[in-house]
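Whether sequence alone determines local backbone shape is best considered at the level of individual chains. Part of our work consisted of pairing the sequence of a single chain with a tokenised description of its backbone. This step matters because it turns folding into a mapping between discrete strings. For completeness, the protein is quoted in full, as a sequence line and a line of structure tokens:

_____
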Amino acid sequence: MTEQVDPKIYGLPSRTILMKKNPDEFVLVIDRKSRIVMKDALLILKKVEQIKEKVQNASVVLKTSAPVCSKSIKFLNEKGLDVVSI
């Protein structure tokens, strides 16, 4: 079961959509039409690091409806973040 969590708890901007599956499993949702490029990937990685600072051993998955640049997918996967299409 997935429930929406207040992102401010983890030091994230209030417009961030953060879902929680289990106590240590999170889903970061980005629902937009514009392409996710490397600059966006760096910001996403910062958000993931902020979550991991608050919750030790947290696993985060990125769910997005936007097309993702192939370099960004490779970069995020190397950093341990799975990218899933909505």
Notes: The radius of gyration is 12 Å. The chain has two helices and five strands. Strands lie at 3-5, 17-22, 25-30, 59-64, 82-85. The chain has a mean pLDDT of 96.
